[in-house]
Amino acid sequence: MQRRVFLTGLLAALPLAGAWADDRTSRAAAFIEAQGKALVAVLDSDAPLPEKRTEVARILREAVDVRGVGQFVLGRHWRTASEAQRNQFLELFEETLVRNLSARFGELQGVTFEVGRAQPRGEEGVSVATTVNRPGQPPVLLDWLVSEASGRPLIVDLVAEGTSLRITQRSEYSAVIQRGGGRLESLLEAMRRQLAQLEARELASN
């Protein structure tokens, strides 16, 4: 009798679980579409470069779990870093994201994108497929991993051609630290040099 009651309750809950999953995938797809449109609007605007960069930074802060992704890519070094080092890393990491994009403002004008299928990925979140169309270039397929672990949708990974950006970044950062004798400061110094190069590229291409 107790087993029958348990199974009945479980079956009754299944439609609710399915509805929650549908809501989550719908929210993730709508979130990616809204953030993508906001970003394209900035890229296509005639605003001055500093204003566009500021607006892109605002969009990225709202759309990306910078702290969560930063903590993931730093890996075990996050646990041994001081609070000051963590804050420096997160500032440099966020600025790198912004500069990587702003250095390509010119070539990204006229970009459009289409949101495709959204699929649950268990506890990781929801994967949202998109197609990015660039003028005169072949389309690019990108999958965005959206998590609600923080209480609202945030991007936690980007997958291009089956390659995870955060896993790739984690491997690259770990290699830099290893070459620097295991010092986190060696990574921070490399990130500062990279930002200087991106700034120079931005000025040259916009």
Q: What fraction strand?
A: 15-25%
H/E topology pattern: HHHHHHEEEEEHH
Strands, total number: 5
The global form is globular
Question: Largest beta sheet, briefly?
Answer: 5 strands, antiparallel
- Percent helix, as a range, is 55-70%
Count helical runs.
8
Strand order of the largest sheet: 1-2-3-4-5
State the separation between the terminal residues, measured CA to CA. Answer: 73 Å
Computed CA radius of gyration, to the nearest angstrom = 20 Å
Structural class: alpha+beta
Question: In terms of per-residue confidence, which ranges show pLDDT below 50 for 5 or more consecutive residues?
Answer: 1-20
Question: Average pLDDT, to the nearest integer?
Answer: 86
Short description:
The chain is an alpha+beta fold and 206 residues long. 64% of the residues lie in helices and 17% in strands.
Describe this structure in words.
By secondary structure, this protein is of the alpha+beta class. Helices cover 64% and strands 17% of the residues. It is built from eight helices and five strands; from the N terminus they run ααααααβββββαα. It has helices at 2-43, 49-63, 66-74, 76-80, 83-102, 105-108, 165-179, 184-205; strands spanning 112-120, 126-133, 140-147, 154-160, 163-164. The chain has a five-stranded antiparallel sheet. A hairpin with a 6-residue loop joins strand 2 (126-133) and strand 3. Helix 2 (49-63) crosses helix 5 (83-102) and helix 7 crosses helix 8. The longest helix has 42 residues, at 2-43. The radius of gyration is 20 Å and the shape is globular. It starts with a helix and ends with a helix. The model is unreliable at 1-20 (pLDDT under 50).
